[in-house]
Amino acid sequence: DPECPAVTESIVIGRQLLDDLCQDLVRRSFIACDGVLRAAGLRPPDIDAVFLAGGSTHLPVIQQGVEAYFGHAGRLDFDPIEVVAMGAGLAAG
């Protein structure tokens, strides 16, 4: 953005600030889950496994949100970043 000069300094963001900044996104993702589950006639505890995908799932705030919403920890059986690449490959195929 030409209006914002390049910053060459590092910005340190502590865990609590990062968690606070992510809370609205986490909350909104579970609002979307509410709608999908409602349409399927299910509730969060009805889901046996949640496989986490994408780099943001490395954040503890995301993992804690998944566990709080579904009642059990999300699964990280695969590298969450590789899962995105595999999904993109399947979609492109």
Structural summary, described in words:
The chain is 54% helix and 0% strand. The chain contains three helices and no strands. The termini are far apart.
Stretches where pLDDT falls below 50 for ≥5 residues? none
What share of residues is helical?
A: 40-55%
Q: Please state the oligomeric state of the protein chains shown.
A: single chain
Rg result: 17 Å
Per DSSP E runs of 2 or more residues, the count of β-strands stands at 0
Percent of residues in β-strands: under 5%
Give me a quick take on this structure.
By secondary structure, the chain is mainly α. The chain contains 3 helices and no strands.
Please give the structural blueprint.
Blueprint: H1 15-40, H2 60-70, H3 80-92
List keywords for this structure.
single chain; 93 residues; mainly alpha; 54% helix; 3 helices
